[in-house]
């Protein structure tokens, strides 16, 4: 059976994964390998979304500090372990200097 036509986003993701597997000499032999890759992908996606969430909280993006209108700023990351059906996953949670940032995404997300 032929594969349905991918959306442009899915086609781009398919190409990115093909390159990732090839460039990192990764072969998938079983479900454990798939789970490991899924954990890595999910942590990268979550960390990017959390960085965007902090951008919104602070009102400026990471490298746009010239447009900063607050005395608060980024202050590194802390590690949090999330327990998922893919196994335990370490996620770098961004911090702000004033300690005001409370990540809503992690609070509201449930990964099966």
From TrEMBL:
Function noted in UniProt: Required for the transposition of the insertion element.
Cited InterPro entries: Transposase_mutator
GO molecular function terms listed in the Swiss-Prot or TrEMBL record: DNA binding; transposase activity
UniProt feature, compositional bias: Polar residues: 75-84
Keywords assigned: DNA recombination, DNA-binding, Transposable element, Transposition
Biological source species: [Bacteroides] pectinophilus ATCC 43243
Region Disordered: start-end pairs: 66-99
GO biological process: DNA transposition
Name of the protein this chain belongs to: Mutator family transposase
Pfam families: Transposase_mut (PF00872)
